[in-house]
Amino acid sequence: MESIKTETELKTQGVYFANLEAYNNGRMVGGWLYPLEYDSFTDFEKAIAKITRFADEIAVHDYDDFPNMGEYPNHESIYNLAHALDNSYLDNEIIIKYFNDYYGYDFEELEDEIQDIEDAFISTYDTFKDFADERADEDILNIIDKDAQQFVFNNFDYDSYARDLEHSYNVIDLNNYQVAIFHQY
Q1: Looking at beta carbons, which pairs linking 24-31 to residues 24 or more positions away fall under 8 Å?
Q2: The whole model's pTM is what?
Q3: Could you please report the per-residue DSSP string of the chain?
Q4: What is the model's pLDDT at position 11?
């Protein structure tokens, strides 16, 4: 059963569209639009035209919970990216920061990379060391003879292991002071 989004859930990923001619003449004509509120790009495009009073030139002056695609992005790319981000099981911050760190800044290409980012994602942890410690414990339990496990647990250098292991993963710092960990492909 598909859940219906609340108005608050639809009021994310906002983009402020402005009538550039009015702006250059000292007036603010425009407003915030939320691509998730529209079922089709055609409806979104009509809303942009209406909010900017059918301006010939339209600029984007601000983004909220959405990657900065510049002042003159392709409006269809904005619409498609908002819906692609919404369809992902990952948090927008994780996708955007990972893309920014490992792919670059051309967010018009992000929509095509979301599946790869989801495939590479492992999990979030408080620190990379927490991930490394968990991985070390699993490896010790799976590799070492049961009689030797306690000796290894007591003498294993977890800090060095975490330091070395970090080179095998992509790690991004999140705003909530956690880290998101990804496989390197």
Answers
A1: 29/53, 29/55, 30/58, 30/61
A2: 0.81
A3: -PPPPPHHHHS-SEEEEEEHHHHHTT---EEEE-GGG-SSHHHHHHHHHHHTTS-SSEEEEEEESS----SS--HHHHHHHHHHHHHSSS-HHHHHHHHHHHT-S-GGGHHHHHHHHHHHEEEEES-HHHHHHHHHHHHHHHHS-HHHHHHHHHH--HHHHHHHHGGGEEEEE-TTS-EEEEE--
A4: 67
Weakly modelled stretches of the chain, pLDDT under 50: 1-6
Quickly tell me which residue has 């702006």 as its tokens.
Answer: 23
* C-beta atoms surrounding 31 within 10 Å: 15
Model confidence pLDDT, tens digit, residues 22-45: 999 999 999 999 999 999 999 999
Per-residue confidence (pLDDT) for residue 10, from 0 to 100:
53
pLDDT of residue 154: 87
